[in-house]
Amino acid sequence: MKAAIFHGPGRIAIEDLPDEPLGSHDLRIEVARCGVCGSDVAMTSGTPFDYPSGCRLGHETAGTVIETGAEVTGFRVGDRVAVMPSGPCGQCAMCRANRPLFCTDGRMQFGGFGERMVITPGSAFRYPDSVSHAEGALVEPIACGRRAMRMARIDPGARVLVLGAGSMGMGAIFWARRMGAGCIAVATRSGGRDAAALAMGADAAIRLAADDPDAVARALGGPPDIVVEAIGKPGALDLATGQVPIGGTLVSLGMCISQDPVLPVLLGSRDMSVHFPVAWSVEDFIETIRAFDEGTVRTEAMVSEVLPLSALPALIEEMRGVHARQKVQIAPGG
Fold first, then answer.
1. What's the CA gap between 229 and 172, in Å, rounded?
2. What's the pLDDT band for 324 if we cut at 50, 70, 90?
């Protein structure tokens, strides 16, 4: 089978690999779609946070079960599943605390940029026929948004400002709307993603500019109660902090891998709450699929392009600079 392998900064190769052995408690899936995440760019860029050399890439994965281990129950060939990148044991302290990413006894399950994968049943979440493979591959990033908005503790009618309209920003918009936000504004550098953000549930799309300091309040009908930083570039935290009013909440989803200084006295002088959520819980995966099944919002509107696996190395290099692409998914089978 063909799969993308990371060999160091600027060296992602599509290689022919043997299929992984199938354990008695495993599932083998044929990958239908895998989304390209900002972390696929950031963590292959030559920083201390890079993925290990030699590893398979791809973690926003959806596919179809094509083989089950001898002792697997609850799944059958033909099931369509979204894949949690962590194969949680379900028993350790981190799993019991609803933090499966940090499971101490499970296994990481990257490899969505490949034709087939072997995964644990605990990391497979069935989605119905009403949910497309494109949406199946959006479960992971949108589930991140659910965890973030749970941590923010949205009050009914809250005003929410989201900075950035990548996957994390879209997930925050989607769940802020479902959790009762009164008004949601998304701020981006250009209008290229406005339509998708509005389709996901935002009420307004704006630009932040020094000569228009009232843009946020005008769009929201007042200052934001919650500000979500979903940019992930140096300077983004400072930008977000400047938008939080006294007693407000800042949620950072950008996961910037460079130093991004903020002035602590500015945070303290506003008596704000600050959260740095990461990943998802099992419940977040389940509820995201349930929300997709309801079909109120067709999240596949986020997806701007579907490319073959062969295009991935060049795409990742392109995305290291400024790019206009919205959400790209890879179809490993062509």
1. 10
2. low
